[in-house]
Automatic annotation (TrEMBL):
Pathways per UniProt: Cell wall biogenesis; peptidoglycan biosynthesis
Record-given protein name: UDP-N-acetylmuramoylalanine--D-glutamate ligase
UniProt entry keywords in alphabetical sequence: ATP-binding, Cell cycle, Cell division, Cell shape, Cell wall biogenesis/degradation, Cytoplasm, Ligase, Nucleotide-binding, Peptidoglycan synthesis
GO annotation, biological process: cell division; cell wall organization; peptidoglycan biosynthetic process; regulation of cell shape
Entry similarity comment: Belongs to the MurCDEF family.
EC numbers: 6.3.2.9
Species this protein is from: Epidermidibacterium keratini
Domain Mur ligase central: 112-294
Length: 476
């Protein structure tokens, strides 16, 4: 995309959310003639109107004269308006593609994607970059729109840590970051992408058609298969939770160990795994990916270690909310992992604890009972009970009957916020009576989206945290 060609071009922005508003503003400042399509007339703010942006209405077909469509990332190619544009041969791109076209070419992008862990890994990477002295911005899927960081009045960053979803990557065919990391692949958003293969191919765009240094998870066979197809073999930087081979980052003797070409003397310790926060093997993997990306811009092991120590984990990601001591002396910890919205993320969360009462359920995005078989069978020896909430809880109940029939299951049918209160009450009772003399973790890792009962995963996590504090501090 030639930025000069935007001046005078008739551009339609599809969707007026945070991303669409930022795109419309940037396009208008480039001299484009911008229309914005959205269900809400007030999506065109007074600021946008002053820039000349016009409200196009809630469209299903393309207006005449449009030469480019910039879509919000959540809009699938099957949305009638976008399908009409594609059928007519009109180019459709996303906010990230526009940001790439308008970027300062001297400012590198380090990008991260994956089914799970990308927000944590980007947060770690940003902390590492800042520890290394960079003026770094954390942008993308969570954080400010990339287009704002690239074109804003205060855009004076030296490097971008960019989190990219599969939706964003689908609409960003030209993006080629200096280095990109693919953390993992598991079935997700198949209703949007149409198939696992299509979803995985969009994720693989993080490697910029082979132009980028490719950080990849050597423990994930699907990721490595994609690396063989889409990445340049000479530009691979694999990471593993096992002891690393030459050319890899991994774990040895309780330390993150670098054996890539960036390591001093061929092998260099970075930080002890016990210092990585949040806890859990999946977060050690996130730290390895962030470390690999940081190595590509010249940061030392000491700078990486300091950044990982500086990193403050975000809310709703495997966070211990409160702990209570029961009358018999057992400790009950209440952990909020509301960000675990699919089976893959939830399996990683469950693997972090020994004796668990699991709160799960919500919107399963088309998943069926069989999709949870591996997760439940793996976790069953450590499950002391399960409490199910949300619209699709019957699917999880069936999965429990098939794969862990001896684990107690409590069904909470309440379909609003009160359901979480009841779930935490029930989970506490299961924790109090669990056959263990040690500690028990009440883990809210839903394996599902939240919009049936809550505005988003953050609200779900907040409601859980309030309920957990209530029972832990009041005992009821």
């Amino acid at each position: 995309m030639d930025p000069a060609a935007l001046r005078g071009a008739h551009v339609l922005v599809a969707g007026g959310g945070r991303s669409g508003t930022a795109v419309a503003r940037a396009l208008a400042r480039q001299g484009a003639l911008v229309q914005l399509a959205d269900q809400r007339p007030d999506a065109v703010s007074s600021e946008l109107r002053e820039l000349g942006v016009q409200y196009a209405g809630d469209l299903r077909e393309m207006p005449q004269g449009i030469s480019l469509v910039v879509t919000s990332p959540g809009w699938a190619p099957t949305v009638p308006l976008l399908a009409d544009a594609l059928e007519r041969g009109i180019r459709v791109v996303g906010e990230v593609e526009l940001a790439w076209a308008l970027r300062d070419h001297s400012v590198p992008w380090l990008a991260i994607t994956g089914t799970n862990g990308k927000t944590t890994a980007v947060g770690m990477l940003t902390a590492i970059l800042r520890a290394g002295g960079f003026s770094a911005a954390e942008v993308g899927n969570v954080g400010p729109p990339v287009i704002d960081a690239v074109t804003g009045d205060d855009a004076a960053y030296e490097i971008f840590a960019v989190e990219l979803s599969s939706f964003q990557l689908h609409w960003a065919p030209s993006v080629a970051p200096a280095a990109g990391a693919l953390l993992n692949i598991a079935a997700d958003h198949l209703d949007w992408h149409g198939s696992l293969d299509a979803y995985a191919a969009d994720k693989a765009r993080i490697w910029g058609r082979g132009e980028s240094l490719a950080v990849c998870n050597a423990d994930d066979a699907h990721v490595m298969s994609l690396a063989a197809q889409y990445a340049d073999a000479d530009r691979l930087l694999p990471f593993t939770l096992a002891e690393p081979q030459p050319g890899q980052l991994g774990v040895a003797g309780g330390w993150l160990l670098d054996r890539t070409r960036f390591a001093r003397d061929g092998a260099e310790r970075i930080i002890e795994t016990a210092e990585v926060r949040p806890t859990g093997p999946h977060n050690v993997a996130n730290a390895l990916a962030a470390a690999a990306l940081a190595r590509t811009v010249g940061l030392s092991a000491e700078q990486i270690a300091q950044g990982l120590r500086d990193y403050a984990p975000g809310a709703h990601r495997n966070v211990l909310v409160v702990t209570e001591t029961a009358p018999d002396g057992r400790r009950i910890g209440y952990v909020n992992d509301s960000k675990a919205t699919n089976a893959h993320a939830t399996a990683a969360s469950l693997s972090s604890y020994d004796d668990v009462v699991w709160i799960a359920g919500g919107l399963l995005k088309g998943a069926v009972a069989g999709d949870f078989g591996g997760l439940i069978e793996q976790a069953a020896p450590r499950l002391r009970g399960v409490v199910l909430i949300g619209r699709d809880r019957a699917v999880l109940a069936e999965a429990m009957r098939r794969h862990a029939p001896n684990v107690p299951v409590i069904d909470v049918p309440v379909a609003d916020h009160r359901g979480m209160d009841e779930a935490v009450d029930a989970a506490r009772q299961l924790a109090l009576t669990a056959p263990t003399s040690g500690s028990v973790t009440v883990l809210m890792a839903p394996a599902a989206a939240s919009m049936d009962m809550f505005d988003d995963y953050a609200q779900r996590g907040d409601v859980f945290a309030r309920a957990a504090r209530r029972v832990a501090e009041g005992g009821s």
